[in-house]
Amino acid sequence: MPRRSIVASAALCLCALTVLGGCGGAAESAQPTPNAAAKDKKHQLEAVKADCMKQKGFKYVAYVRPEKQDSDEQIKRASGDYEAMRKYRAKFGFGVFAEFVYPKEMQGSAEPDANPNREIQSRLSAAQGGAYRKAFDACVIAAVKQVIGKDLKSADDYYEQMNMAMRRATAAELDGDPQLVELATAMAGCLKGKGYPVGKTTPGAMSDRGFRVFWAQSDKLGRQQRPDVPDVAPPAKDGQIQMTYQPDLTVAEARPYLNKEIKAALDDLECGKDFYPAYSPRSKAITGRLFEEFGM
């Protein structure tokens, strides 16, 4: 059965986060290291959720996943370093189809998730699981209101608000910057000259253009394998987390897609070798600021 995943499409290609956990992987860009304030918010959120669940008659263990220190290579890639990015892209492309060819390297860069709440949920019956999730959603809403001060419509709305905040910050702080606009426009012209279709040419759009192209291709393959979902993804509302479906692919089946992705990723890097060093550090700084604000 093809795996289903949720992706928040933001300027940094934020990794998908489910309500009860997160995700790892050999992401091309290093995630911002949370400062003391952000870490404190994480612990506060978990403590409030655990207390709330206890009051509702459910067991929930306050758990904050240990932070993993970024490697020197990840830090270099996040800064837009050409050589570090080229080394990564020559093997993993944009990091989409490489998951099927190099699953251990793409998923094994982080320690196994030791979140005890997964085991707790796995022991519940279908009816108990439904009641548990309903209670947990309510506790997430209460915890975010108490600790972060944000009103949520649902637990998923937490990530949708983060996604929207990222879009707005990118548009306000990066998409209107004259230097970045000039570099992004030059990158777009270069890619068009190599035969690649280019849509929006704002800095934010150009930063994750390649990833989005191949992620959409992966989603298309996943949808073709499932009779219960439409072949074409419905348009997401602004800021809404897009539901996507990953296909089941063997290494042999995924390799041609990865080879094409690698070529596109290297062409993208050549065209954006001046763009990424100017854009990436500023984008990462915005992401770090929002991670602190949202306690992520």
Describe this structure in words.
The protein contains 13 helices and 2 strands, in the order E-H-H-H-H-H-H-H-H-H-H-H-E-H-H. The protein is an all-alpha fold and 296 residues long. It has one domain. Strands 1-2 form a two-stranded antiparallel ribbon. Helix 2 packs across helix 3. The two termini are 30 Å apart. The N terminus is likely disordered.
pLDDT < 50 runs, ≥5 residues: 1-26
Q: Report how far the terminal alpha carbons are from each other.
A: 30 Å
Strand order of the largest sheet: 1-2
| Percent of residues in β-strands | under 5%
Class by helix and strand content?
mainly alpha
Estimate the helix proportion, in percent. 55-70%
What count of domains describes the coordinates?
1
Number of strands: 2
